């Protein structure tokens, strides 16, 4: 009897604890109003009405960098459209910015339509809001991200004598992502092992007869789309392996040499690889063929307020990060520098490093600015701009954009809307292009048709896994393409629509 009473007491205490934990922080009315205010201020005025708000839990947080502490409040809500709006439009704020504003992942926003939503449609959102206690009251603050702690422990050893056993040990080591200081031998070993593992997996996929797709490095859009498309293709019975390459240039070379079936490439890189670039001793790669434009991209030149960099001309004599060899970002940076009349000799230091390291170097004062070509919004730049409110985006002068677009079909002017990134109060002009899916002219027609059917017929379903697939449509598949279509792709489009409009440099 006494044991039973004690058990009932523990249950009651547990229920009280849970009830107290769920009641911490502002009440539902305040939370709903704060979410509405964030939507109006951070995305679009009078576009959404918050309905059906429900708090689902809370958890304390501590920002390891600033030491600030507060409370995460998790919620489910419906956002009703007050007017027609496309969250996967090639122009304007899109779902990537919306998810960031409401504290959700891109997968946490459901109900958007690839062709655009109508007035009265509803989005379901599972997100979180961050609060701090200020003068006895809860105050909505910007979300903070806590780094995932790295496990310590014994070192991983390579056991077994066969190559597969060795690879198993290497995979374990790479998967653990051990804490290694940049610039050390350990860091160099892990980076090279990661690249080698990816290349081995590509060879395995080819040995197994799988279709291969060159994507890009994590956490970029190419890698995210490649992983989502591979899952989607597998679920529809098409065996496809997504290879996380160094980026556009590597994908182009592998396609030309028939070491990949398909690859995602920046349209400007694709144009140059196909035609050749005499100044850089780049011979033409005439076997490249296009399939479809996927989504728009933009060149971002990122700096901090204190650098004094306001224009491209201010980059002279400064320390810059351009992107890794084999990446489209590095290619675009050199192309922009040439158009702006800034020779390499007038740049103090050039670092060819991955985006994650460039962001760290900028924050640590090791560089003054970096280039990155990414879809808008770039998640890594969203996180940086929220963490550092002194982040600034350097505009590219209209005369340079015009010069580039006149000489190269792939480029067009694009304006990144205000509020695309936290703290970005003004729009900025830059160079736009498209992410394009390419192949080799020898790729079998059946494979080309299978992939195009998945892309166009499955874009809506695929966008639920990775929202940028919603940008793919019959109206945009030839935007910014400067490389001839594969014969099977031409026939595919011709049979589907009777006649296709000529490609355009203007995004819709």
What amount of the residues lies in strands? 15-25%
Low-confidence stretches: 1-23, 146-160, 499-508
Helix/strand/pairing class, anyone? alpha+beta
- What's the overall average pLDDT, rounded? 84
| Secondary structure: helix percent | 25-40%
- Pattern of helices and strands: HHEEHEEEHHEHEHEHEEHEHEHEHEEHHH
Query: How is the biggest beta sheet arranged?
Result: 10 strands, mixed
Q: Would you count the extended β strands for me? A: 15
Radius of gyration: 25 Å
Helices, by number, come to 15
Shape: globular
Distance between the termini: 74 Å
Describe this structure in words.
The protein is of the alpha+beta class and 508 residues long. Among the domains are: 24-141, no CATH class; 149-209; 301-397 and 415-432, Periplasmic binding protein-like II (D-Maltodextrin-Binding Protein, domain 2, 3-Layer(aba) Sandwich). 36% of the residues lie in helices and 22% in strands. The chain contains 15 helices and 15 strands. The strands form two sheets. Strands 6, 7, 8, 9, 10, 11, 12, 13, 14 and 15 form a ten-stranded mixed β-sheet that branches. Strands 1, 2, 3, 4 and 5 form a five-stranded antiparallel β-sheet that branches. α4 crosses α5 and α13 crosses α15 (487-497). The longest helix has 23 residues, at 185-207. The radius of gyration is 25 Å and the shape is globular. It starts with a helix and ends in an 11-residue tail after the last helix. Residues 1-23, 146-160 and 499-508 have low confidence and may be disordered.
